[in-house]
Write a structure and sequence with these properties.
Length: 727
């Protein structure tokens, strides 16, 4: 270390594991990152992405100044004031002329990884009053929100496996050794799985690919993709018919267990075996093991969500946790309690969870959790008629690559909009269409708090890190960008950004029934810090910002604790085991029993050194095995005449793409796999490294019509495809 180098703590924002890092900083440049051994949660763990923090932070392709489209149609650098003036001139006028629905909002994944993205989008949506709201949840976990909404009355009440104490983990469609976990925040997920094995616990993995996670398991079941809901239904039915179901103390909080038994009657193991390509004896054995384990947790992720029966599968995951008495007990699956959550209230019936309160204009897709399916975004722009989206505000999202049929969306963004704003550090496949691009500073210059992930963490804890490096001249903090955006689209343009925070603080105090004067007691150097301070004070542990600042490596709030019935917000005040919308969707699952499986289906995969579409521009994370290849089983390759390394042509409903063939027996036969987030070959972007190794956009295979009907989530896995050698 040179004499002017120093270190600073920074929670890693690059995936859901939220590891504490120690950054090495020379002047204002991050020159290194290592795991923070004193971090109370991650205890020194780091992965290759975290280790590349410096490279990602200093990427020369990151935009430094706003871009504004000139009369010549070209984007040029502009002052912040010019950028916001333009937004204030255009958006309110469009709303006034065509109604609030004329402005659509798209929120992408990194919003859950920034303070700004957690604190301000609700205010933006309130200011715009639009129902054209799309987020990447409908490419991801919306099925889980819907099942939690229906079961527990709160779409955000998502139980997480008690990873460190469970005796038995049944993991479905998740590969935490590459993803580092999702809806289960657990730094060093791999180490925690190894510890489970070491203490004598069992790990079962259900995945059509023999993933790194599957290789760690006691049992790997290479299920046929898309069939998990059938398998899970058979597991639940087996527990019920073999009298192995024992919800324990939960029983008094349950409603509908008899109806559940009737509803699942048609799914015995031998009826689902063919569709799942898993023999009935294995299914029965898994059910019995689950029931026999002292404690167990069932956990499903992407492979169980982004499929045709995603909501049913997500629901059945918790049905299994409930029937085995593992929901809400240590070692099972519990509801975390984060430091900024609402303080627990006395148990009481709630408002419940409603679906389909409105529908999308073109295809009539029902809303879920106030959102419309992002797969329907393009048609809402390019289909003429009243209520069409004419302007779009995109915050931290790249739907041209991450959502189905990027070509159609690309064209809709190019030709169908009067005005578009992107809040994004890069000029990429989506933001290149914006009229105004507002670039946030790199992570080293931003403070960090995990509003979202602390409520999915396997251990209750809280950590806050301030910006490690001062804001560079000419930069604007992302929270200020968001606050100014709220002002620009509302009638408050001209007010200082702090007005937005004051408004939020006032509303929060009113909602909590606290005196308005409490606002003056809040500490913090910025609006977001004061808001964090308030949420901590009103939260279940009565903490404060001051306490967090005094504990730079975090405060341990203890292991997860039972929260039923306080957490329940259903109308009955109980867990509603067989909610009506689920019951109404079961006939569709019953019909799937008779479906003839497609000969070849596509599934996705993730790579440790990637993250969705935006980390392909850092040299140290590219190359090696992090490439966009079509993985195919040797038998299928031989049958289809494909040679390792040769270009394959893949076709489906949305179109065709080409990718190099990678022959491997880690995918089961009848299944091919492509990663997502690739396809960096469009003109007009500024991501030089990514463009040099563009890969193909897997989502071009989809036409955007295939959705899980209850959640509006796009079907991204188990897609029928045809594969041929490229001519
Ligand atoms: N390195 C890296 N980490 C990431 C990300 C990333 O892109 N790269 N993305 C982050 C995000 S946004 C998320 S949501 C999480 C996701 O976290 P995970 O859900 O753990 O992600 P995946 O690695 O995609 O694992 C999904 C697994 O499901 C399997 N699968 C596919 N179809 C089926 C099926 O029908 N049934 C079953 N049983 N399995 C199936 C796939 O083979 C794959 O192994 O990861 C996060 N972390
Ligand atoms: N086929 C297939 N498609 C998938 C998936 C799959 O498994 N298979 N996974 C889906 C999932 S789980 C998800 S979550 C989505 C992700 O979909 P998106 O959220 O659209 O995709 P990302 O690639 O994460 O793009 C994030 C954008 O945010 C920008 N960004 C990065 N950091 C910041 C920041 O600090 N502030 C701001 N304002 N912007 C930032 C990036 O430059 C990029 O433009 O992809 C989905 N798409
Ligand atoms: S596991 Fe996730 S949070 Fe931890 S260092 Fe890697 S990218 Fe960052
Ligand atoms: Mo995601």
């Amino acid at each position: 270390m040179s004499h002017d180098s120093r270190t600073a703590p920074r929670i890693c924002p690059l995936c859901e594991a939220t590891c504490g890092l120690t950054l090495t900083i020379e002047g204002t440049v991050v020159t290194g990152a290592r795991g923070d051994r004193d971090d109370i949660f991650s205890r020194g763990f780091i992965c290759p992405k975290g280790a590349s923090f410096g490279g990602l932070d200093a990427d020369p392709d990151r935009l430094r100044f706003p871009l504004v489209r000139g009369d010549d149609g070209e984007l040029r650098e502009a002052a912040w004031s010019e950028a916001f003036d333009l937004i204030a001139a255009r958006i309110p006028a469009l709303t006034k002329a065509h109604g609030p629905g004329a402005v659509g909002v798209v929120l992408g994944n990194p919003n859950v990884h920034t303070m700004a993205g957690s604190l301000y989008p609700p205010l933006l949506l309130a200011a715009l009053r639009t129902r054209n709201v799309f987020t990447t949840s409908t490419l991801d976990q919306m099925p889980k929100h819907v099942s939690s909404g229906l079961l527990f009355g709160d779409a955000h009440a998502i139980p997480v496996p008690d990873l460190d104490r469970t005796d038995h983990l049944l993991l479905i469609g998740a590969n935490p050794l590459e993803s580092n976990g999702s809806l289960c925040t657990a730094p060093d997920f791999p180490g925690r799985l190894k510890a489970l094995r070491k203490r004598g616990g069992t790990l079962t993995v259900i995945d059509p690919r023999r993933t790194r996670t599957a290789r760690l398991a006691d049992r790997h079941v290479a299920i046929r993709p898309g069939a998990d809901a059938l398998l899970l239904a058979a597991l639940a039915r087996t527990l019920l018919t073999e009298k192995l179901a024992d919800p324990g103390p939960l029983a008094e909080h349950l409603e509908g267990i008899d109806e559940l038994a009737t509803a699942l009657a048609d799914f015995p193991p031998d009826a689902v075996a063919a569709a799942c390509d898993v023999d009935a004896a294995t299914i029965t054995a898994i059910a019995r093991e689950l029931a026999a384990a002292p404690t167990a947790a069932v956990y499903g992720r992407i492979g169980s969500c982004t499929v045709e029966h995603g909501t049913l599968a997500s629901w059945l995951v918790d049905v299994l946790n409930i029937l085995t008495g593992n929901l809400d007990r240590p070692g099972g699956a519990l509801f975390p309690l984060s430091a900024t959550a609402r303080a627990p209230r006395p148990a009481a019936p709630g408002k419940g969870f409603a679906l389909g309160r409105w529908s999308s204009r073109v295809s009539g897709h029902p809303e879920a959790k106030g959102e419309l399916p992002i797969a329907a975004l393009a048609e809402e722009i390019d289909t003429p008629g009243e209520g069409r989206i004419r302007a779009l505000v995109v915050v931290a999202a790249n739907p041209v690559l991450s959502a189905p049929d990027g070509d159609r969306l690309d064209a809709a963004l190019a030709d169908g909009l009067d005005f578009m704003v992107s809040v994004d550090p890069y000029l990429n496949e989506t933001s290149r269409h914006a009229d105004v691009v507002l670039p946030p500073p790199p992570p080293s210059q931003s403070a960090h708090f995990d509003f979202a992930f602390n409520s999915f963490a396997v251990h209750n804890q809280v950590r806050y890190t301030r910006a490690a490096v001062p804001l560079e001249d000419g930069r604007m903090d992302e929270s200020e960008i968001h606050a100014r955006l709220v002002l620009a689209v509302s009638g408050m343009y001209g007010a200082p950004p702090s007005a937005v925070d004051d408004l939020a603080i006032g509303t929060a105090l009113t909602r909590a029934g606290a005196p308005k004067e409490q606002a003056t007691e809040l500490t913090g150097d910025s609006g977001p810090e004061r808001r964090l301070d308030l949420m901590l004070r009103l939260g279940p542990y009565g903490l404060s910002l001051e306490q967090l600042l005094a504990h730079p490596h975090g405060i341990d709030l203890g292991p997860l604790k039972p929260r039923v019935p306080e957490v329940l917000r259903t109308r009955s005040g109980r867990i509603e085991l067989l909610p009506e919308p689920i019951a109404a969707d079961l006939p569709r699952l019953r019909r799937a029993l008779g479906d003839r499986p497609a000969p070849l289906v596509l599934v996705g995969r993730r790579h440790l050194r990637s993250n969705n579409s935006w980390m392909h521009n850092v040299g140290s994370l590219t190359g090696g095995s992090n490439v966009c290849t079509l993985q195919i089983h040797p038998d299928d390759a031989a049958r289809l005449g494909l040679v390792d390394g040769a270009t394959a042509r893949i076709e489906s409903s949305g179109g065709g793409i080409e990718a190099p063939t990678e022959i491997t027996d880690t995918v089961r036969s009848g299944v091919v796999s492509l990663p997502h987030g690739w396809g960096h070959s469009r003109p007009g972007t500024r991501m030089a490294v990514a463009a040099a190794q563009p890969g193909a956009n897997v989502n071009q295979l989809l036409d955007g019509t295939l959705l899980d009907p209850l959640s509006g989530t796009a079907v991204l896995n188990a897609i029928p495809v045809s594969v041929t050698p490229a001519p």
